[in-house]
Amino acid sequence: MSITATVENDIIKLPPGVHVPNGTEVEVVLPGGSTSPEDETPLYERMKDFIGCIKDGPEDLAVEHDHYAHGTPKRSSR
To answer: Residues 28, 33, 38, 39: what is their CA dihedral angle, to the nearest 10 degrees?
Structure first.
């Protein structure tokens, strides 16, 4: 769930009608704030364990991934 709240005197004020139970852990992301170090890790480093993990897929999976994932028409007719 995502909501927009207001801060007044270091207290987060929820919008009217929004209730969050006491003790609920929340994450606060400030607009335009700096990114955490793990967000700066290159995509390759975060995904390298998955490279080559599909051994029995169709030969044109890379080219036609939208077709196989979303059912769009194939881009080529090999």
So the answer is: 110
Helices (H), the chain: 43-47, 65-70
The predicted-structure confidence for 23-57, as pLDDT tens digits, reads as follows 999 888 888 766 566 568 888 998 999 998 888 88
For the chain, the C-alpha Rg in angstroms (whole number) is: 22
Contacts of 27 (CB under 8 A, 6+ apart): none
Going by C-alpha positions, the residue among 62, 43, 45 that lies closest to residue 54 is 62
Query: What's the confidence (pLDDT) of residue 74?
Result: 93
Nearest to 69 by CA among 56, 53, 58, 77: 58
- Closest CA relative to residue 12, chosen from 29, 36, 33, 34: 29
pTM of the model: 0.36
